[in-house]
Amino acid sequence: MRALLTKLEQASALDRVGDRLQRIVQATLRPQRVRDLLHGVWLGHPLHPAMVQVPVGAWISAAVVDLLPGQRRAATTLIGVGTFSALPAAVAGLNDWAALSRDQRRIGLVHAASNVVGLALYSGSLAARMNGRHGLGRALGFLGLSAASTGAYLGGHLAYKQGAQVTQSVSELHLISDGWHPLGDFAALPQRQLVTREVDDVSVILYRHGDDVTVMLERCPHQSGPLGQGEVQQIDGHDCVVCPWHGSTFRLNGGEVVHGPSGNDQQVLPSRVVNGVLEARLP
Ligand code: FES
Q1: Cα(72) to centroid(ligand 1), Å
Q2: What is the DSSP track for 52-96?
Q3: Which of 39, 134, 233, 251 is the most buried (most CB within 10 A)?
Q4: Per-residue pLDDT at 162
């Protein structure tokens, strides 16, 4: 299985389809606020993994109920709930997929294809059950569960092996030692400009606004883009940094994500000024 997944990650033959689908998704899912909604910006976490709990839960429950006598109606209801709830979950997943790196998109494409097959089988299962053909409906349901399980396995690989939509920056916190770390003379910090410094070899950005200062990890939580090279913009009265790679935008007074593709906030470090020296520590 590992060898197969490695081959899939390197399967450049998938790129023609993947690149075309990416353009279609990016052209269709507009404007930005729709993309942000689907990325889970309003939630502070990616939305797709939360949404898939409904179809997965309903389909697994249907499989259990299908093994019990006299539960046809319950099984049909669960298949219907799973099938219809899978559609918005798939749209949120496509929106995340379009902002992934190429190797992630290859696995994501097969993940999506498995789930489309699963969805088609469950739609057939629902139609068969509603026409009274419960034996066929049950068989299609179990086939659908097999396809959806393959999709779920690939989704796990995307998240846990390839780090898709997982905060990339937060693991750097483990590299910072305990205690306060000096970051230089506070008075020398320019106003409303990004300044890059290091805490135990971990890059952070400093942003001073008046007497307030923010110390934030520099690696973008989306795919490790250098936020220190980003642009500062004012959005809804808040100074924000825009990642130079894919445009994820974070408030500079707290790290809250304002625009995706990141669905995660950026990590800010507690800071203080002692004898004119700015210091930061682990949260
Ligand atoms: S790395 Fe993708 S938005 Fe920052």
Answers
A1: 47
A2: THHHHHHHHHHHHHHTSTT-HHHHHHHHHHHHHHHHHHHHHHHHH
A3: 39
A4: 94
Q: Average pLDDT, whole number, for the chain? A: 96
Q: Rounded to an integer, what distance in angstroms lies between the CA atom of residue 3 and that of residue 204?
A: 37
- What does the pLDDT average to over 235-261? 96
* 193 vs 190: CA distance, rounded Å: 6
**CB of 79 closer than 8 Å to CB of 141:** yes
The mean pLDDT value for 218-234 works out to: 97
SS3 content of the chain, % helix, strand, coil (to 5): 50, 20, 30
Which is the closest atom of ligand 1 to the Cα of 261? 3
Ligand 1 pocket mutation pick from 168, 246, 266 by most atoms within 8 angstroms of CB: 246
Distance 260 CA to ligand 1 centre (A): 8
Domain ranges (residues) in the chain: 2-161, 170-280
Give tens-digit pLDDT for 144-177: 999 999 999 999 999 999 999 999 988 999 999 9
